């Protein structure tokens, strides 16, 4: 899952990034509104953690412009503004969740998982994919009752495909979900992770759409699965 962190305090932003990456997220930081907009133009994100007091404007103004433009990116406001009036303004502007500072990292992680679960139209973290069972909250995967060991990148790839069920993700989008913008890796790395996931979870877990990218296997994209 690729998370955009919009936070002007570089130490706080780096701490959030490091903590989320330990839980399997890929993260990029924007220290102001202008950079946040550029990041969204440049790549694919699954959710945004948004501060409100930013050097070039207010985070609510940014969120308002996103919603007016039809952007449905799930947003969690993370701010020191904790009055009920602040929270009402946040939700009325279009945020999906609201967390006040100081905060606990584990709560942020849980809230992001819940936000992504709702965005994916799921009521639970548990998913069945043929002979595989997946817990999107913990990142654990079982096949025929046996726990399957996935690397951090393999899990990130599977999670990105699960979140976008049925939609094709190109190599650039998958790269962002696995590594973010900052890490420069070989052009074939996504294909390598796809190969490993197919070997561990079954060849039909991922479909190749030639000339475009990859998507979750068609048999797992039926309504109700």
Automatic annotation (TrEMBL):
Q: Which domain of life is it from?
A: Bacteria
- UniProt record, GO biological process: regulation of DNA-templated transcription
Q: Which residues are annotated as modified residue 4-aspartylphosphate in the UniProt record? A: 51
Q: Name one GO cellular component term.
A: cytosol
Q: Which GO terms describe its molecular function?
A: phosphorelay response regulator activity; transcription cis-regulatory region binding
* Positions of the OmpR/PhoB-type domain: 124-218
Q: Where in the cell is it found?
A: Cytoplasm
Give the signal peptide as a residue range, or say none if absent.
none
Q: Which UniProt keywords apply?
A: Cytoplasm, DNA-binding, Phosphoprotein, Transcription, Transcription regulation, Two-component regulatory system
For this protein, the record's CDD domains field holds:
REC_OmpR_PmrA-like (cd17624), trans_reg_C (cd00383)
Domain Response regulatory: start-end pairs: 2-116
The principal localisation class reads: cytoplasm
What is an example of a Pfam family matching this protein?
Trans_reg_C
Q: Which residue intervals are the DNA-binding region?
A: 124-218
Mind telling me what this protein is named?
A: DNA-binding response regulator
């Amino acid at each position: 899952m690729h998370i955009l962190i919009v936070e002007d305090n570089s130490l706080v932003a780096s701490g959030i990034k490091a903590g989320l990456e330990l839980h399997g997220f890929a993260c990029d930081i924007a220290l102001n509104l202008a950079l946040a907009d550029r990041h969204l133009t440049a790549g694919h994100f699954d959710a945004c953690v948004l501060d409100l007091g930013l050097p070039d404007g207010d985070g609510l103004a940014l969120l308002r412009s996103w919603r007016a433009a039809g952007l449905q990116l799930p947003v969690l406001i993370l701010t020191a503004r904790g009055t009920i009036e602040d929270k009402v303004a946040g939700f009325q502007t279009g945020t999906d969740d609201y967390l006040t500072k100081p905060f606990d990292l584990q709560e942020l992680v849980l809230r992001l998982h819940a936000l992504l679960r709702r965005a994916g139209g799921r009521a639970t973290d548990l998913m069945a994919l043929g002979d595989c069972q997946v817990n999107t909250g913990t990142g654990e995967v079982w096949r025929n009752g046996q726990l399957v060991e996935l690397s951090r990148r393999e899990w990130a790839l599977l999670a990105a495909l699960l979140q976008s069920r049925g939609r094709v993700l190109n190599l650039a989008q998958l790269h962002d979900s696995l590594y973010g913008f900052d890490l420069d890796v070989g052009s074939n790395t996504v294909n390598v992770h796809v190969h490993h996931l197919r070997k561990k979870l079954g060849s039909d877990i991922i479909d190749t759409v030639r000339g475009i990218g990859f998507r979750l296997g068609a048999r797992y994209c039926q309504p109700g699965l």
